[in-house]
């Protein structure tokens, strides 16, 4: 199995699990007859896992990036099994935390395995796999639950494709060797690129976490809102499938930000579920390119070693995942939820202001496509 296929499989499994986690928590609350409020903190397990892995990232990557991918696949598969079959809250909590920790390992390994001049295109392709699988998750959970079985059992779908990833890959990417002569990255440039990942992921997870709640706010039932909520990951899947084609022709980050702003405005202004669903799909198309491009910018920072770039990317994502949805929720306590989605607009403005001043020199991009990183 090629490196790209291994990473794409892991990312697809992770996308399926993360998108289905919210619905699983609702079903878990029903199965265990406990208030959903007692489970909401579990939705931050992925962000907590990313921060934990980021702290130990350079150590984990010393033996090469394939080891974190294998460990992440095993831990994620174990967590999915535990969550699907959990008989009580304590066991379900363990399963959710294992998914968060294992998923963080996959995220850590991904940029370290997909390096080179075409890193941004390869990252976009594996992100497309994650988004495509994410579209299938709500449907699988809903179908099983409607058939009389617990929808949590849908989490078991990811176990078979994850198990082959536990086996060491042939031609594994070697560990990043020490290089005492390499210059250190400029702090200003590094901070700028790292902050752009925080902003990109923050925008994405504002929609990911709160899309279904916004749809339910239009008056539809919870089950209908969950089904319509597929619109956002579907938009992301479309955007990432088109990404490798369009990102060589247009400045994708400014274009993506404009599309997201249109989607956020529609999500705020629309009243009916149909228009809100369409607006979420539009926002998903725009969001699709932000993370792959900003992550490629970080890994291409001059003087930044892969063993340090990957943990920094994981840390940025973890901080965004924990803080941004919470900030939107806090704003929704002051204004209506629909208006709270406008928090994404200043985040997008900051993302554009902080754009890199030059294309990364150790992740070169063809001169004809230098607008990719801008």
From TrEMBL:
Keyword Magnesium: no
Transmembrane segments: 12-29, 41-61, 89-114, 194-213, 219-238, 250-269, 275-298, 310-331, 337-354
Signal peptide bounds: none
Keyword terms, alphabetized: Membrane, Transmembrane, Transmembrane helix
Gene3D superfamilies the UniProt entry points to: MFS general substrate transporter like domains
Protein name: Fucose permease
Lineage: Bacteria, Bacillati, Actinomycetota, Actinomycetes, Micromonosporales
């Amino acid at each position: 199995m090629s490196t790209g296929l291994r990473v794409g499989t892991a990312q697809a499994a992770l996308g399926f699990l993360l998108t289905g986690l919210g619905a699983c928590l609702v079903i878990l609350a029903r199965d265990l007859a406990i208030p959903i409020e007692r489970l909401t903190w579990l939705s931050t397990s992925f962000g907590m896992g990313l921060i934990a892995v980021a702290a130990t990232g350079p150590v984990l990557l010393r033996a090469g990036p394939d080891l974190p991918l294998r460990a992440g696949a095993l831990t994620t598969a174990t967590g999915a099994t535990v969550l699907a079959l959990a008989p009580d809250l304590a066991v379900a909590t363990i399963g959710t935390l294992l998914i968060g920790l294992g998923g963080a390992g996959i995220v850590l390994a991904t940029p370290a395995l997909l390096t080179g001049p075409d890193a941004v295109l390869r990252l976009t392709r594996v992100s497309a796999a994650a988004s495509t699988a994410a579209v299938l998750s709500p449907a699988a959970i809903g179908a099983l639950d409607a058939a009389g079985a617990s929808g949590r059992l849908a989490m078991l779908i990811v176990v078979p494709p994850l198990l082959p990833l536990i086996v060491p890959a042939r031609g594994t990417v070697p560990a990043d060797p020490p290089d005492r002569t390499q210059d250190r990255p400029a702090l200003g440039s590094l901070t700028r690129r790292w902050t752009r990942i925080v902003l990109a992921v923050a925008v994405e997870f504002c929609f990911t976490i709160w899309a279904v709640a916004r749809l339910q706010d239009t008056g539809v039932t919870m089950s209908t809102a969950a089904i319509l909520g597929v619109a956002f990951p579907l938009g992301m899947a479309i955007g990432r499938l088109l990404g490798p084609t369009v990102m060589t022709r247009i400045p994708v980050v400014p274009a993506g930000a404009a599309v997201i702003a249109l989607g956020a405005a529609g999500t705020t202004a629309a009243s009916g579920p149909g228009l809100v669903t369409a607006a979420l799909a539009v926002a998903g198309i725009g969001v699709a390119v932000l993370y792959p491009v900003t992550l490629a910018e970080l890994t291409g920072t001059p003087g930044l070693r892969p063993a340090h770039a990957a943990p920094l990317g994981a840390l940025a994502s973890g901080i965004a995942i924990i803080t941004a949805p919470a900030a939107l929720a806090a704003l929704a306590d002051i204004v209506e939820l629909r208006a709270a989605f406008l928090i994404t607009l200043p985040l997008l403005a900051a993302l554009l202001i902080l754009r890199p001043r030059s294309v990364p020199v150790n992740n070169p991009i063809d001169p004809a496509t230098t607008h990719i990183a801008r």
